[in-house]
Write a structure and sequence with these properties.
Helix content: 25-40%
Strand order of the largest sheet: 1-10-9-2-8-3
Structural class: alpha/beta
Low-confidence stretches: 1-15
CATH topology: Rossmann fold
Shape: globular
Strand content: 15-25%
CATH architecture: 3-Layer(aba) Sandwich
Radius of gyration: 16 Å
Largest sheet: 6 strands, parallel
Number of domains: 1
Order of helices and strands: EHEHEHHEEEEEEHHHE
Number of helices: 7
CATH class: Alpha Beta
Number of strands: 10
């Protein structure tokens, strides 16, 4: 499959024509196989959650968010955070979500509640032919083999900071600049992620 380089999806509620190739690719996969797993990875503030919501509005599917698998305090060791892509509980995500989804089963998982730093109550998600995973680290090397389609979203650095500040405020923006963005960029570089994904959407 070729890798189109598409412009950044606009922020309007109307589905943009730039998403048509992605929808076509997913529909083509669904016509040939029983289950399809799609990953949407990329830079914070690039629109991963928005893209997942737009796809969900067009196609029957279930959506999972990597933000629900943030590391618990005991997992945030210096050794782990120094390794590219380890700023997420990919082990738990694989066991609770991706493996059952790949088997066509219902998914039961416990989202991480950042404000309380604990795992929340179990969430039950029924089976679906199409499963979409959105969020940074969705294409972690241990998760990569299970997907049938992988999408990378990028954003201009200045626009990225503007969106993060508008969404989270100036204090959180500083955390992103000092910590979260560098960890993401380390992961992207180490995995050559933008080059390896099936689609690249950005500016």
């Amino acid at each position: 499959m070729t890798k189109p380089h598409l412009p950044q999806p606009p922020t309007s509620n109307r589905l943009s024509p730039v998403l048509d190739p992605v929808l076509d690719a997913i529909r083509s996969l669904l016509s040939r196989q029983e289950r399809v797993l799609v990953a949407i990875d990329g830079r914070c503030g690039a629109g991963k959650t928005t893209l997942a919501a737009r796809l969900q509005a067009e196609l029957p599917c279930r959506v999972f968010h990597m933000d629900d698998f943030f590391l618990q305090p005991y997992q945030r060791t210096p050794e782990r955070l120094q390794a590219p892509g380890e700023n997420v509980d990919h082990e738990r995500f694989l066991q609770e979500v991706l493996l059952p989804a790949a088997r066509g089963e219902a998914v039961v998982y416990r989202p991480y509640l950042c404000a309380r730093e604990v795992l929340g109550p179990a969430v039950f998600v029924p089976p679906a032919r199409l499963t979409i995973v959105e969020g940074s680290y969705a294409c972690h090397q241990t998760l990569w083999p299970y997907y049938h389609l992988r999408i990378f979203l990028s954003v201009d650095p200045r626009e990225q900071l503007r969106r993060i500040e508008a969404r989270s405020g100036p204090e959180k923006l500083r955390q992103f600049i000092d910590r979260w963005i560098p960890l993401e960029e380390q992961y992207f570089r180490a995995c050559s992620l933008a080059e390896r994904c099936d689609f690249f959407l950005g500016v």
